[in-house]
Amino acid sequence: MTTAAPAGTAAEELIRTLPQSFRWGVATSAYQIEGAAFEDGRTASIWDTYCRTPDMVHAGDHGDVACDHYHRMPEDVELIGSLGVDTYRFSVSWPRVQPGGAGPVNAKGIGFYDRLVDELLAKDVDPWVTLYHWDLPQELEDAGGWPVRETAYRFADYAMLVFDKLQDRVRDWTTLNEPWCSAMLGYYVGRQAPGRQNFADAIHAVHHLLLGHGLATQRMRAAANPGHEFGITLNLGTATPASDSIEDREAARRADGLGARLYLDPLLRGRYPADIVTDLADRGIELPVQDGDLEIISAPIEVLGVNFYSGHVYSGRDEQGNTRDAQGNPIDRQIPQGKPVTAMGWEIVPERFTELLVRLGRDYPGVPMVITENGSAFADVPDADGFVEDTERTDYFRQHIAAVAAAREQGADIRGYFAWSLMDNFEWAYGYDKRFGIVRVDYETQRRTPKRSALWYRDTIRQVRSGS
Ligand code: IFM
Question: Does the model's pTM come out above 0.90?
Fold first, then answer.
């Protein structure tokens, strides 16, 4: 039984229990902010292709310009510095650094990240690199994509190109962001690039993503000077049965198994969860594991990145009471919990965040966690000066950071928190319609204006650091 964090003033008090050494950051990803999609040698990623496929992305939006960060990077770093954070988590665009996904490094492409790192360090902000945030070079998808084993080896080669150039100044390295999204949304649901709809492909993608993580981690560690920290970021939630019925408990087990344990267990225990392996076998699917893969995947890591947005309640029956769908597969249906929702329709459940973190600390001990993403989209209304009084987003941060502090008090080893996102950006299939930023971006002028949540975040960091 976990204890939920309180709201309001009590939440602020709980936040002040965080240690002065706690890391505070803001996060972004390459395709969502950079723009300059075809400059300086960058080639297409699966997202460039997906955006150009009719009806895939809201309003036909794409990342060609996005927040134009590629051209405005020094000004954006200035902004990051003004927020008082100590860490900036960004991702590197694979097709910018290694056009076509093969061959040598593109000097102009890596040069951008080289300058970004220098700018950050000059502002006393630690760079935190994510190597893969969903922008697979299109050529590698054409050769089979993540369902194909070779892609894992290509990823490790690319990782080394980036590591060789930046390791002298970058300590924190995340291999993959949210492999569940790459595999399940990209290859099964089809709501993300490359937009395939094949469950077996998605399961094969899971294994090759994890293999790519392990290969890259091993190679980077072998080449690293002491002091580097390696990890992976998973998007995790909670899966609670709607009732005590066997169907609902089974639905929650499957959701947790496919959403969380299918990643956590091989990474941190060196084996896939037996119940999920059996479920997959019932569907005629086998994880494409070869000898030695699980040792590679479970290569030691220093940090587990956790991205949290919501938690869900599951029923094992559809609205008509059936326990199987038309294909004969068991039903795992999310049931609304009657909680307020964000503009994404995601229920706001900070108590589930505490529950998740305490569970991770208990079930997977020994690996410190950093919250590499947490945040919310709301329908912002700017005033005449472009300022957004985003009370709901500010409350969201207050409640969720308090939830982190509550989890720490209950034993979870959490070392930092990064707000998603630094600024409004391209929200994938939702295009520019959903705004997650603590800084508003006017896409007409590219003007950046910190919202109330940014000011609250800055002041909160200051208070925690000063111990006041
Ligand atoms: O914008 C995304 C991010 O790219 C990955 N994690 C979830 C965010 C909000 O949907």
Answer: yes
